[in-house]
Design goal:
Elements (H helix, E strand, L loop, with lengths): L4 E5 L10 H8 L5 E5 L8 H5 L6 H17 L4 E4 L7 H15 L8 E5 L4 H9 L3 E3 L9 H6 L2 E4 L4 H8 L4 E4 L6 H9 L4 H11 L6 E2 L7 E5 L4 E5 L5 E2 L1 H8 L8 E4 L2 E4 L4 E4 L4 E5 L2 E4 L4 E20 L2 H5 L1 H15 L8 E8 L18 E9 L2 H17 L20 E17 L8 E4 L1
Parallel strand pairs: 1-2, 2-3, 3-7, 4-7
Antiparallel strand pairs: 1-9, 4-21, 5-20, 6-17, 8-11, 9-10, 10-15, 12-13, 13-16, 14-15, 17-19, 17-20, 18-19
Helix pairs in contact: 3-4, 7-8, 8-9, 12-13
């Protein structure tokens, strides 16, 4: 077992980019692996449902060209977690295509490990019938056979085990489907015999890049070093510094409990953690505990097509209109719905958003409105794109010319920044599956393919 294992995280999301100088500083530390997360549900279910990436191909390739070259030149593995954003088959294949373009200019052919995270409906149906599927939280709808039938993209978050297998098979480039964000980082530490609790806690810190530093950002590099009884983190950019507060604060990031974090098959207990300075900008963390769960559960994510959207962006400057915006919107909405009596009301929704006037917090806003203009968004969500666009066009024209009390002009209620004003967004997806599934003993749900 090595005395310490160093892991370089170039950024919080593959394709976000990072300063080349920071990355080179990290490579001079001779890391044992380069690991980068590529996925998130922060963008909602659309990426999973539509099978598209979170970042552009150009952005992903720009990062991969640097990362692949550094990994191969230094004979260390590169691990990509949740490839393509959502980690389903289309996202993994998209990442592999970009990787192939990068490798086409290389003289050597590296050993590539691909770990698929897709689940078929039959296995989930069996689990549902056997009572092995539960809710992530009370407000998540029950998973039914109907919602399962309507879902066409299903993945599960993998733990470190399949990534560990890829490392044991000496894969040089490891592309993971949907993964629990810290798992690809934790797999490196565990592979080298390090403590699983420290490995996962460090993974929790590293997966967001330099967000644990001050000033924090996901678009810069961070180095994590695991030792026998602790790990350290340090920024690789001199303009950023890690502190005990910034690292401890990031430990709370994206958790529903201050010191307990559930993962695939385990609980990470951080109640006894200590954070202390081990040098200028070098923070040492100890006391992280990995507690295996009695039952091994994985988080399932599935998306289904819900509707189609068309929206309009406009500006409102008239103080009379702004002061009466909710009442006027209600009248406009009533007029539009009356015009489209041939379209069942339950098949579409009309929504208004006032940016500059309570659009973010809504009814929870505590500050009184004092602005002189607002940005107005009309949104129509309907069963078909044609219906959404038709209703939105009528909504826009009705509002544009609506004669409200006190208006001094005869038209021009709205200022449009773009022409055409109506924007067809296309399909709208929702998470139809956001549940935990208990695996059967000995079940291996994630398949490793070596290329």
């Amino acid at each position: 077992m090595s005395k310490e294992i160093r892991i370089l995280s170039p950024c919080g999301m593959l394709g976000y980019g990072f300063p080349l100088e920071s990355f080179q500083n990290g490579m001079r530390k001779k890391p044992h692996a380069i690991v980068v997360d590529a996925g998130s549900t922060d963008a909602g279910p659309h990426k999973l449902g539509a099978g598209v990436g979170i970042v552009s191909k150009r952005a992903a390739k720009k990062d991969l060209e640097i990362l692949i070259s550094a990994a191969l030149d230094n004979h260390i593995p590169l691990i990509v977690g949740s490839a393509g954003g959502a980690g389903a088959k289309p996202h993994v294949e998209w990442t592999l295509d970009i990787m192939e373009e990068v490798l086409s200019n290389k003289k050597t052919r590296p050993k590539v490990g691909v770990i698929w995270a897709d689940f078929n409906k039959s296995s989930i149906t069996h689990a549902l019938n056997e009572g092995r599927i539960g809710k992530m939280s009370p407000n998540v709808p029950d998973l039914t056979h109907l919602s399962l039938t309507e879902t066409h993209s299903i993945v599960a978050q993998m733990g470190h085990e399949p990534i560990l297998e890829a490392l044991h098979q000496e894969c040089e480039l490891i592309i993971c489907g949907r993964a629990f964000d810290p798992s690809p980082f934790a797999a490196v530490g565990i592979f080298h015999g390090m403590d699983a609790g420290l490995s996962y806690h460090l993974g929790k810190i590293l997966e967001c890049g330099a967000l644990c530093a001050e000033p924090g950002t996901t678009k810069d590099c961070i180095l994590g070093t695991i030792k026998e009884n602790a790990f350290t983190v340090q920024s690789l950019n001199p303009i950023r510094k890690c502190s005990t507060t910034s690292v401890a604060a990031h430990t709370f990031y994206e958790k529903d409990h201050p010191y307990l974090l559930h993962g695939p098959g385990f609980l990470l207990d951080l109640s006894q953690c200590e954070f202390k300075s081990a040098g200028e900008g070098l923070i040492e963390v100890s006391g992280s505990k990995y507690v295996p769960s009695k039952d091994y559960r994985v988080k399932l994510e599935g998306a289904r097509l819900k509707a189609y959207r068309t929206f309009v962006l406009a500006g409102v400057r008239d103080p009379v209109l702004i002061n009466n915006i909710e009442r006027i919107e209600a009248s406009v909405k009533e007029e539009v719905m009356s015009h489209y009596k041939d379209i069942p009301e339950h098949t579409y929704q009309i929504n208004f958003y006032h940016y500059g006037k309570n659009a973010v917090l809504g009814e929870s806003e505590s500050e009184p409105f004092s602005g002189h203009e607002i940005g107005l968004v009309f949104e129509v969500v309907a069963d078909t794109q044609e219906a959404a666009s038709s209703i939105c066009a009528t909504l826009r024209s009705t509002f544009l010319h609506y004669g409200y009390e006190g208006r001094k002009s005869t038209a021009g209620n709205l200022a449009f920044p773009f022409a055409p004003s109506d924007i067809e967004f296309g399909p709208v997806y929702e998470f139809s599956i956001y549940h935990l599934m208990k695996l059967k003993k000995g079940e291996i749900p994630f398949q490793l393919e070596v290329l």
